[in-house]
């Protein structure tokens, strides 16, 4: 028997997503983790206390995410839909949502429009459900016009996915474009993983457009990547369909406790967000002074650089920074990022950014 003949079409359509950079960081805890767009500040003491208080009860199953009305309500309040517990569904990180949405809407052969570049799993996971991903290509500064999207729609286009701020660049597809896309016949998914750092959202458009779905996460501004919680904001009918395919009990007891505590300490989230924004803007301005490096202005918690003009490659910088104690992410060779010069730096503390800026500047001159 050849096992490969037995596996599903989904397996044939899929590729392994290598997250080796997280392995490297966990294996080398003395390195500063500027490679995964995590928050470099620790969780709120209230979150730590809430998780600790639930540890003695992990012999019990969690209540299913759909019935934890307290948490759903707190999330609805957080995104500006007060009392809107029926407008929220939960995923095990927004990574799970990246599967849940095509699972809910895609039939084999349906097309998904996706900016290139985008957060990598968006180009891969929908293939498992038989989607065809159609690249939406920006200009050379990674800026998008409405026609970049509308010019690619066909009768088979079922879904349009974009991140706002855009990953991995950090720039914004305009609110006007999002609203015009909502007026098409497609499901529009806006991933707002980094939204707190941009201080803008399109969540307020959800009551107006039944086809708009916003994806959010606790992994960025909330600083809880390790607890794995993502959620969507959409009209109740959408939430109902998504909950039909959602894996029951996908959110652990500890995650539910951590999330509620994090929302109750929203001031802590805001304080950290402000620190990240300040350090990000400082870092961008500083690197912009280095000859040969292109800085893509970011509204997220990371900054994309291109070092083509320095005579060195991104890999040279990544290795040099590693020797100095910082892991950053080489993005060269990604979708629509063919040049060997792209790498991305997550915004850490101000001290991290001052050190990294100096290392990059000195290495460029060397
Ligand atoms: C745009 C975007 N969406 C989602 C995620 C994943 O978030 P989560 O930790 O909630 O799975 C990331 C992670 O880097 C991201 O960049």
CATH architecture of the largest domain: 3-Layer(aba) Sandwich
Radius of gyration: 21 Å
User: Count the strands?
Assistant: 13
Bound molecules: pyridoxal-5'-phosphate
Largest sheet properties: 7 strands, mixed
Number of domains: 2
> Structural class of the helices, strands and pairings?
alpha/beta
What is the CATH superfamily of the largest domain? Answer: Type I PLP-dependent aspartate aminotransferase-like (Major domain)
Shape: globular
Number of helices: 14
Compact summary:
With 366 residues, the chain is an alpha/beta fold. The chain contains 14 helices and 13 strands.
Report on this model:
This protein is of the alpha/beta class and 366 residues long. Helix content is 39%, strand content 15%. It folds into two domains: 3-40 and 267-365, Aspartate Aminotransferase, domain 1 (Alpha-Beta Complex), CATH 3.90.1150.10; 45-266, 3-Layer(aba) Sandwich (Aspartate Aminotransferase, domain 2), CATH 3.40.640.10. It is built from 14 helices and 13 strands. The strands form three sheets. The chain has a seven-stranded mixed β-sheet with strand order 2-8-7-6-5-3-4, with helices on both faces. A four-stranded antiparallel β-sheet has the order 9-10-13-12, covered by helices on one side. The chain has a two-stranded parallel sheet with strand order 1-11. α9 (195-198) links the parallel β6 and β7. α3 runs antiparallel to α11, α4 (69-78) packs across α11 and α12 (266-288) packs parallel to α14. The radius of gyration is 21 Å and the shape is globular. Residues 37, 93-95, 119, 163, 167, 191, 193, 217, 219, 225, 230 line the site of pyridoxal-5'-phosphate.
């Amino acid at each position: 028997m050849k096992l490969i003949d037995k596996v599903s079409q989904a397996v044939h359509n899929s590729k392994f997503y290598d997250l080796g950079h997280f392995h490297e960081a966990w294996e080398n805890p003395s390195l500063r983790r500027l490679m995964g767009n995590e928050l470099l500040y620790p969780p709120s003491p209230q979150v730590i206390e809430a998780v600790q208080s639930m540890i003695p009860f992990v012999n019990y199953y969690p209540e299913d995410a759909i019935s934890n009305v307290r948490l759903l309500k707190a999330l609805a309040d957080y995104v500006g839909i007060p009392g809107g517990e029926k407008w929220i569904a939960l995923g095990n990180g927004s990574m799970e949502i990246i599967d849940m949405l095509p699972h809910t809407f895609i039939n084999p052969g349906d097309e998904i429009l996706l900016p290139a570049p985008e957060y990598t799993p968006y180009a891969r996971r929908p293939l498992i459900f038989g989607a065809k991903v159609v690249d939406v290509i920006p200009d050379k500064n990674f800026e998008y016009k409405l026609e970049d999207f509308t010019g690619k729609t066909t009768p088979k286009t079922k879904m349009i996915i974009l991140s706002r701020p855009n990953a991995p660049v950090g720039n914004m597809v305009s609110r006007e474009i999002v609203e015009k896309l909502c007026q098409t016949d497609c499901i529009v998914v806006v991933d707002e993983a980094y939204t707190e750092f941009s201080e803008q959202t399109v969540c307020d458009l959800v009551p107006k457009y039944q086809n708009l779905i916003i994806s959010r996460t606790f992994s960025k501004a909330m600083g809880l990547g390790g607890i794995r919680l993502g959620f969507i904001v959409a009209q109740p009918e959408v939430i109902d369909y998504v909950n039909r395919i959602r894996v029951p009990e996908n959110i652990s007891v500890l995650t539910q406790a951590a999330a509620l505590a994090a929302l109750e300490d929203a001031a802590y989230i805001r304080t950290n967000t402000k620190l990240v924004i300040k350090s990000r803007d400082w870092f961008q301005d500083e690197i912009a002074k280095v000859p040969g490096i292109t800085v893509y202005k970011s509204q997220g918690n990371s900054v994309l650089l291109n070092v083509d003009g320095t005579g060195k490659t991104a890999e040279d910088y990544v290795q040099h920074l590693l020797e100095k104690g910082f892991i950053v992410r080489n993005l060269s060779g990604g979708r629509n990022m063919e040049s060997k010069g792209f790498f991305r730096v997550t915004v850490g503390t101000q001290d991290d950014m001052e050190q990294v800026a100096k290392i990059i500047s000195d290495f460029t001159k060397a």
